[in-house]
Specification:
Elements (H helix, E strand, L loop, with lengths): L2 E6 L7 H15 L3 E6 L13 H4 L10 H10 L2 E7 L7 H8 L2 H4 L10 E7 L9 H12 L5 E8 L11 H16 L1
Parallel strand pairs: 1-2, 1-3, 3-4, 4-5
């Protein structure tokens, strides 16, 4: 049974990112995966300070917050789905905090996030899919630092600035497929 972790990094609870994450979760569960859905807004998270404390403490981040809980969930998962709203044509600060705080894994001889399957959900006001390219490329840049990890698919939730706009057959259909695919990985 695949373990799928779904992380919504939107600061807005029950918005478009959360709606699509919930649909992915339902679909993955229905396809037989063990699924956990979390929201970063429910955790106390702080940005990396580039102090290199994790190097001095043998791969443990010295910032005292909830990131170790999230990181443990990521490490124990086979598949990770991350969702972010698009802010100024880039990834949100909330998803960047999670990405940047995985640095303590990066410096290890063997990164515990290696060889995972990744999915990305981006919700955005813009209706142009091409406007999301910078954000997707940034996420791919993160995965280039995690050996063996692959971005399996991206759900482009364009034209979804109003909360609830992603609750359409079009996006829910894509989210259901993503959940089934994640469970099959």
């Amino acid at each position: 049974m695949k373990r799928v972790l779904i992380i919504s990094t939107s600061p807005r609870k029950n918005g478009n990112s959360d709606s699509l994450c919930q649909k992915v979760a339902e679909s993955a569960k229905g396809a037989g995966a063990e699924v956990e859905f979390i929201r970063t807004s429910d955790y106390d998270l702080h940005p990396c300070t580039a102090c290199n404390g994790c190097i001095k403490t043998e791969d443990k981040c010295v910032i005292k917050d909830d990131m170790p809980v999230i990181l443990d969930k990521m490490i124990k998962s086979d598949v990770i789905v991350m969702a972010t709203p698009l802010y100024y044509f880039s990834l949100s600060a909330q998803i960047k905090i999670v990405i940047d705080r995985t640095y303590s894994c990066y410096i290890k001889d063997k990164n515990p996030l290696e060889n995972k399957k990744w999915y990305l959900i981006i919700t955005a006001e813009t209706t142009e899919k091409s406007d999301l390219k910078t954000a997707v490329d940034s996420f791919k840049g993160f995965l280039r630092c995690v050996p063996g990890s692959t971005l399996q698919d991206v759900l482009y939730g364009t034209g979804t600035s109003i909360s609830g706009k992603a609750n359409s057959d079009k996006y829910f259909g894509q989210a259901e497929k993503m959940g089934k695919d994640a469970a099959a990985e």
